[in-house]
Design goal:
This protein has 7 helices and 10 strands. The chain has 249 residues and is α+β, with helices and mostly antiparallel strands. It has a single domain, classed as Alpha-Beta Complex (Nucleoside Triphosphate Pyrophosphohydrolase), CATH 3.90.79. The strands form 2 sheets. Strands 1, 2, 3, 4, 5, 6 and 7 form a 7-stranded mixed sheet that branches. The protein has a 3-stranded antiparallel sheet with strand order 8-9-10, with no helix packed on it. Helix 5 (168-176) packs across helix 6 (184-193). The chain starts with 6 loop residues before the first strand and ends in a 7-residue tail after the last strand. 35% of the residues are buried.
Length: 249
């Protein structure tokens, strides 16, 4: 059988500076979900038809080719964490009104509130494609963005059951200790971010690695045993991880 086609999706890695250094925002997925159950991930999800319709917005400059992905990343982050990347300043009352249950879709709610998504705040960081051996595959683009000031995360309680801010290295250490679970692409993105001391440093490093090179991990047999391997020269080390240590879904 041919492998399933990967589903276009997008995630946003929200960044902030803390006294101990760079922190990222992550959510823990509901343990009852079919894919990545209980995993700690960056907010994100598949591109929906409303993202492709662009919600009727025209950016001030020529629209980026990845605009549906950027809109999906912003929408998913808002739905899962309550954090909204917007061009307009949002006080507590305005943000609470946007978070309130509504029959309107994301774009309709923003238009009604006179709020525009800040697609330009997103810096492309990585593009990972799920290996062909996995039953559900994604073509996932990850973006970096500074966390908007004055917004506290409020997870949706459905797909996301917990949110946390922490340094990339601290999250990796928690995973090694078994306190949380990371899928492979998340783990590798955290490893790459662990080398950055500030949000600005992470954003500048990402801007230097353009355009994105799609990363499709593949299994390989080695003298030391089976590994999952990614290409060299795409910003990640190590490029081989023991297959038994890898979670893909």
């Amino acid at each position: 059988m041919a492998p399933p086609d990967p589903i276009p999706s997008a995630s946003v890695i929200l960044l902030r500076d803390a006294p101990e250094g760079l922190e990222v925002f992550m959510i823990r997925r509901n343990a009852g979900l079919r894919f990545a159950a209980g995993a700690t991930v960056f907010p994100g999800g598949r591109v929906d038809p409303e993202d492709r319709a662009l919600h009727g917005w025209t950016p001030p400059e020529a629209p980026a080719a990845d605009l549906p992905l950027r809109l999906a990343a912003i929408r998913e982050a808002f739905e899962e964490s309550g954090i909204l990347l917007a061009r307009e300043p949002l006080d507590g009352a305005r943000l609470a009104a946007l978070r309130a249950p509504s029959l309107l879709d994301f774009g309709q709610r923003l238009r009604a509130a006179g709020v525009r998504p800040d697609t330009e705040a997103l810096v492309p960081f990585a593009r990972w494609i799920t290996p062909e051996t996995v039953w559900r595959r994604f073509d996932a683009t990850f973006y970096l963005a500074p966390a908007p000031a004055g917004q506290d995360a409020v997870v949706d309680g459905g797909e996301a059951v917990e949110g946390l801010w922490a340094g990339p290295q601290a999250i990796l250490e928690a995973a090694e200790a078994g306190r949380l679970s990371l899928v492979f692409a998340t783990r590798m993105n955290l490893t790459r971010l662990a080398a950055c001391r500030t949000a600005r440093e992470a954003l500048e490093a990402a801007a230097r690695h353009q355009p994105l090179v799609p990363i499709l991990p593949r299994f390989a047999d080695t003298a030391a045993g089976p590994v999952l391997r990614i290409p060299e020269g795409v910003g990640y080390t190590p490029t081989e991880v023991a297959a038994g240590l890898v979670r893909l879904g």
